[in-house]
Amino acid sequence: MPDLCRDSSCIECGGKGRIASGREVCPERRDRAAWVFWLCECGAFVSCHPGTAVPMGRPANGRTRSFRIRAHEALDRRWMRVGGKRSKHATSRSRRKAYAWLATQLGIRVEDCHIGLFDEAMCRRVISICESQARAA
């Protein structure tokens, strides 16, 4: 079972939110009808770990969620490479090392280095750091 998100308050308004179904949060996405979300009264949301009501991060608006996706993509390009090439053999160890590297770059504790907890500004920093590192490699 995943660790409980230490802070499930909304990144946008600070509200606490509530559990909601995929039908309520994404009515246009039938493929997400059975998903569980953490929904804030301001409309920000985050999905929960599959089969749980444990949020994957802090609720966020569409713009912040978009930056989180971009930040994940930038970091994934780093840890999913083995010998400089994208690899299906990347391991959870590789992922942990990438997050430890990122925490150092951001000047935060590894325990706090979770993109689902980041706001737009922090996601922009992640993207910039990862892209700069990729250009230098």
Helix/strand class: alpha+beta
How many strands, which pairing sense, and closed or not: the largest β-sheet? 3 strands, antiparallel
Please give the number of β-strands: 5
User: What do the pLDDT scores average to?
Assistant: 89
Number of helices: 4
Strand content: 5-15%
User: What is the rounded Rg?
Assistant: 16 Å
Please mark out the parts with pLDDT under 50 across 5 or more consecutive residues, or reply none: none
Topology record:
Elements: E1 18-21, H1 22-25, E2 36-39, E3 45-47, H2 62-79, E4 81-82, E5 85-86, H3 92-106, H4 120-136
Antiparallel strand pairs: 1-2, 2-3, 4-5
Helix pairs in contact: 2-3, 2-4
Task: From the structure above, extract its key features.
alpha+beta; two-stranded antiparallel ribbon; 39% helix; 4 helices; 137 residues; three-stranded antiparallel beta sheet
